[in-house]
Write a structure and sequence with these properties.
By secondary structure, the protein is an alpha/beta fold. The chain has a domain at about 85-225: Rossmann fold, CATH 3.40.50.10610. The chain is about 25% helix and about 30% strand. It has three helices and eight strands. Strands 1, 2, 3, 4, 5, 6, 7 and 8 form an eight-stranded mixed beta sheet that branches. A hairpin with a 7-residue loop joins strand 3 (about 80-85) and strand 4. The longest helix has 24 residues, at about 200-225. The radius of gyration is 29 Å and the shape is elongated. The chain starts with 10 loop residues before the first helix and ends with a helix. It holds the Pfam family ABC_trans_aux. This is ABC-type transport auxiliary lipoprotein component domain-containing protein. It comes from Comamonas testosteroni (strain DSM 14576 / KF-1).
Length: about 230
């Protein structure tokens, strides 16, 4: 029996070649690895810059400028933006991090930004790099505020219940011309805010409220020292 030969010429050959190429291309694409999921990034949201009602009226004496030193977070690696949480009901001494959620900035930088905005509503706030002195007629010294972030994480008391835990340590340092720097006051501020949901989004919202509350408490504390 003679062999049967099939020949494709002209347009038919080009159509067959194009179809085969498409099939091969699709098969090759199906074997490519999927792109990694980018983590969701959270910040502290929009700050409420409305002046407190008790201080809305202009004071008869201008407030003394306050120097806010760079906020430190000694318990966290420098530059780390991981969102940490702790399971109180299972190995509570282990600090865990969300895999698919991050802060937009390191916690110390976010806290410093919010403190500058909040404290600046009631007094001039300078940085440690500003070389500013009071007028000769003003005998009040410019104090420096040093803040460290000791706790900045989400705590789960159960699988369905969590809260933001924020702890700040503040030291108010006065610049004395004769005796050098003086410790005017020191206080630890601890704020806990329940999360609306037991996940990263709920923790971020609760932490934003905790930072705002801590800033308000810190401002009232400074006023007790005439700052």
């Amino acid at each position: 029996m003679a062999d049967t030969k099939i020949s494709f010429t002209g347009r038919g050959a080009w159509r067959l070649l194009g179809t085969s190429s498409l099939v091969l291309a699709l098969a090759a694409c199906s074997g490519l690895p999927t792109a990694p999921t980018q983590p969701v990034r959270y910040d502290l949201g929009v700050a409420d810059l409305a002046a407190p009602a008790a201080n809305a009226a202009a004071a008869s004496v201008a407030p003394v400028p306050l120097v806010l030193a760079e906020v430190q977070a000694p318990g966290l690696p420098e530059g780390l933006t991981a969102m940490f949480y702790r399971l109180n009901y299972s190995d509570s001494q282990q600090l865990r991090a969300y895999q698919n959620a991050r802060w937009s900035l390191p916690p110390s930088q976010m806290v410093e930004q919010r403190l500058r905005m909040r404290l600046g509503l009631e007094r001039p706030v300078l940085s440690g790099k500003d070389n500013v002195r009071p007028l000769l007629a003003d005998k009040r010294s410019i104090a420096q505020l040093r803040v460290t972030v000791d706790e900045f994480n989400q705590v789960f008391d159960s699988a369905s219940s969590s809260r933001a835990l924020l702890r700040l340590s503040a030291s108010l340092i006065g610049a004395g011309e004769s005796a050098g720097n003086q410790l005017l006051g020191q206080k630890v501020f601890t704020v806990e805010v329940p999360s609306s949901s037991a996940d990263a989004a709920g923790g971020a919202q609760a932490m934003a409220r905790a930072v705002d509350e801590a800033a308000a408490q810190l401002s009232r504390w400074l006023q007790g020292y005439g700052r």
